Amino acid sequence: MTFKPAHLLVVLLATALPAMAQTLATVNGKTIPTSRLETLVKQVTAQGQQQDSPQLRAMLRQELINREVLIQEAEKSGLANNAEVKQAIEASRQSILVRALMIEQLKKSPVSDAEVQAEYDKLKAQAGDKEYHLYHILLEKEDEAKAIISKLKAGAKFEELAKQSKDAGSASKGGDLDWSTPNNWDPTFATAVKALQKGQFTETPVKSQAGFHIIKLDDTRTAKFPTMEEVKPQFVEGLQQQRVQAYQQTLIKKAKIQ
């Protein structure tokens, strides 16, 4: 078959276009594939700070070209054979592989909506339906706490005595701990608080890992727990971390380590 010049030009263009479409740029004879730009665009837009646009693509294209120029110069200088550079490249390779393995595992065993709901319900139950506005005085020794309680019973002001507290964060505020929920407290601390009425303070020292407390209940209110929609991403991330850690421990147990 004989091609006329015009027909030959059409054939050459048809075969060249796919290859050209896959090449973003050529730097000193080395091509940068378009796929590299697409990957970079996905990474940048996934952060949510920029949207895909011709301007963004032009900027990232130039960045890839600049990077290629520098890489070629580094290789020409023999830096690829530098021991520290090799170690850094190997460390990056390992991190990428580990991350890819964990992502693959999460694809095989994704966190379900039922798991997220169960975790949400558990934490909501632990938080309870009340918040407490508390004041406290923390002492190192039980006798010191008893002496403070005696002074309070005699009419001394809680806020003044709180200056003696070893909890520096609240001592300067009259012992004010602000609003909080029982799930954040030491169990003995929580039990003592729940037995108080508004305005009352504990008449015996409450021992915790931090020392001995005198606790005063200022007020209570209905707890405001965030909705599932507000916290679902954090719950998903937390459960994913648990799943990845469990998978990692399973592999470590199976491994022959000497």
UniProtKB/TrEMBL annotation:
It comes from the Bacteria. Residues 129-219 form the PpiC domain. SUPFAM superfamilies: FKBP-like, Triger factor/SurA peptide-binding domain-like. Keywords: Isomerase, Rotamase, Signal. One of its GO terms (molecular function) is peptidyl-prolyl cis-trans isomerase activity. It catalyses: [protein]-peptidylproline (omega=180) = [protein]-peptidylproline (omega=0). It holds the Pfam family SurA_N_2. Residues 1-21 form the signal peptide. Its EC number is 5.2.1.8. Belongs to the PpiC/parvulin rotamase family. This is peptidylprolyl isomerase. It comes from Undibacterium pigrum.
